[in-house]
Amino acid sequence: MGNRDIEAARTYHATTKHSYTSVRTDGHHLDWDNRPMPYKLYPEVSGLALPRDLSLARVPALEAIAAGDAPGDGGELTLEALTRILFCADGLTRRTRVGGEDYHFRAAPSAGALYPIEIYAAVAETGELERGLYHFSPCACVGCAAATGAD
After folding, report:
1. Structural domain contains residue 25
2. Is the pLDDT of residue 75 over 70?
3. Residue 16 is assigned to a structural domain of this protein
4. Of 56, 33, 50, 32, whose CA–CA distance to 112 is shortest?
5. DSSP conformation letters of the chain
6. Model confidence at 142, in pLDDT bands (50, 70, 90)?
């Protein structure tokens, strides 16, 4: 299967998505007192600061992909290009405080999932990045003191 063969992804989506009936007939309810932390933390691993000033395209994502305008323009993956990919996939676009609690809004919201959304980047050595497995922490991008353990 090649990268442009998306039929498997469409089939997976069609067979696993909720329907009008499944959402309204399930007796499941949210246990707000038993929520996991919104971000997975790895305190024993040092972080890598990502660029904060990003130039984001004003073109719909599928149009950019179809046109071959992917970040990095087919060349070596730069830290800025990786940051744009990560931000568009799971970055925090804003936050608000309600009733003493912070709420973060993501670039690609989860429709209410309470579990941490994880993104890992497996990177071959590039000019700017060492080879390795990287964990994206969107909370660190906005300086969320509570989730990072900072004061």
Report:
1. no
2. no
3. no
4. 32
5. --TT--HHHHHHHHHHS--HHHHHH------GGGPPPSS---TTS---PPPS-----SS-HHHHHHHT--TTTTSPPPHHHHHHHHHHHH-EEEEEEETTEEEEEESS--SS--SPP--EEEE---SSS-SEEEE--HHHHTT-HHHHT--
6. very low
Count of structural domains within the chain: 1
Tokens standing for residue 76: 């070596």
Comparing CA positions, the residue from 44, 49, 110 lying closest to residue 82 is 49
**Spatial separation of the C-alpha atoms in residues 135 and 144, rounded to whole Å:** 16
Query: Which residues lie across from 123 on neighbouring strands?
Result: 132
CATH assignment at residue 55: 3.40.109.10
Tokens standing for residue 138: 């969107």
* In-domain check, residue 78: yes
* Domain containing residue 127: 30-148
pTM assigned to the model: 0.63
Of the candidates 46, 40, 129, which has an alpha carbon nearest to the alpha carbon of residue 90? 40
Tokens of 147: 């989730």
Is residue 132 within 8 A of residue 118, CB to CB? The reply is no
